[in-house]
Amino acid sequence: MARVIVVTSGKGGVGKTTTSTAFGAGLAKAGHKVVIVDFDVGLRNVDLVMGCERRVVFDFVNVINQEANLNQALIRDKRFEGLYILSASQTRDKDALTEEGVERVISELAERFDYVICDSPAGIERGAQLAMYHADDALVVANPEVSSVRDSDRVLGLLGSRTRRAENGEEPVGEYLLLTRYSPAQVSKGQMMAADDVCEILSTPLLGVIPESSAVLTASNSGLPVSMEERSDAGQAYNDAVARYLGETREHRFLTRKKGLIGRLFGS
Amino acid sequence: MSILDVFRRKRRESAAVAKDRLQVIIAHERSDARGPDYLPPLREELLEVVRKYVAVDDDAVRMQVDREGDYEYLELNITLPEGSSPQAPARGR
């Protein structure tokens, strides 16, 4: 049986799709069978960030409506063995996903894969709740910024009450915080909340800190999960996060800025 | 501590302000959002009852559900305005 991971945030634009694709590629690189499901019906972007936008013929909604089967709709990644995506529909309205349909598709995927990654739409409404309902684990993506942290807290509240695990009184959904767009320089100047502060406010363990990095944009520009950019700071940070998720102990590397000579002299 | 620190940190750092603000608002929102669904209407009705006797602000009635072992406590706080006395209740609205 697969582990179902929801990538969620409350607030939009914090890096859910970047995280879903980077995490999916990272898990596939570690030898697991992974599928990334795009729940953002009406918008869709996982296909574009993964670089397979021209290969989408059938999508999630087609499978829900039984117009296509999973084999027809799953798109295999050309770089990693065992990495697949199930694209969202761009044309259907956002109410096209039904609870029964989602349950059927997720359980079918869970039989075939080791990890099912659900890329949630932003917000806390129906689409986001459908994406989190079957989750075993949740990656809560946040920026170290007030509106994002507050919305993350709302999402954490929903994870504790509106999921299958919560409703059945099972072990709660595993919660992991991933801080993106982190700037160690601003943190050291007291202009940005530090990772520890955000963890303390949300009382959620930190899975990883992704530094603000041009690598994220250049990777998505070329349709590449950023974790494949192994020389970039953001790529390394994502790979660390994946390793931690899989149980490895790794130090957080991007919490402080490396100081140059001048920085050391003036202690800025 | 470096030479530059002398000129710095006169104003309070904005990250610390952000943290304080978040701690307050999130604690407040958690007590609202994580209680049972009947809390908001119950609160409204209690407010109406209280207002029959004392003129109070909208946020005068605060309630929170706490759990201890198998028991759930409903904690209810009504802030009466200064100078109001139970012997001489206001005549309502």
Account of the protein in words:
The complex is a heterodimer of chains A (268) and B (93). The N and C termini of chain A lie far apart (51 Å). Chain A has an eight-stranded mixed beta sheet with strand order 3-4-2-5-1-6-7-8, with helices on both faces. Chain A has helices at residues 16-29, 46-50, 60-64, 70-73, 99-112, 126-133, 146-159, 164-167, 184-188, 195-202, 214-221, 233-245, 261-266; strands at residues 3-8, 34-38, 75-76, 83-86, 115-119, 137-142, 174-182, 206-211. Helices cover 40% and strands 16% of the residues of chain A. In chain A, a hairpin with a 6-residue loop joins strand 3 and strand 4. The model of chain A has no long low-confidence stretch (mean pLDDT 94). Chain A is α/β, with parallel strands linked by helices and 268 residues long. Chain A is globular. In chain A, helix 1 (16-29) packs across helix 12 (233-245). Chain B is α+β, with helices and mostly antiparallel strands and 93 residues long. Chain B has a two-stranded antiparallel sheet with strand order 1-2. Chain B is extended. The termini of chain B are far apart. The model of chain B has no long low-confidence stretch (mean pLDDT 78). Classes of the chains: A alpha/beta (268), B alpha+beta (93). At the A-B interface, helix 7 and helix 10 of A face helix 1 of B.
Outline of this structure?
The complex is a heterodimer of chains A (about 270) and B (about 90). Chain A is of the alpha/beta class. Chain A has helices at about 15-30, 45-50, 60-65, 70-75, 100-110, 125-135, 145-160, 165, 185-190, 195-200, 215-220, 235-245, 260-265; strands at about 5-10, 35-40, 75, 85, 115-120, 135-140, 175-180, 205-210.
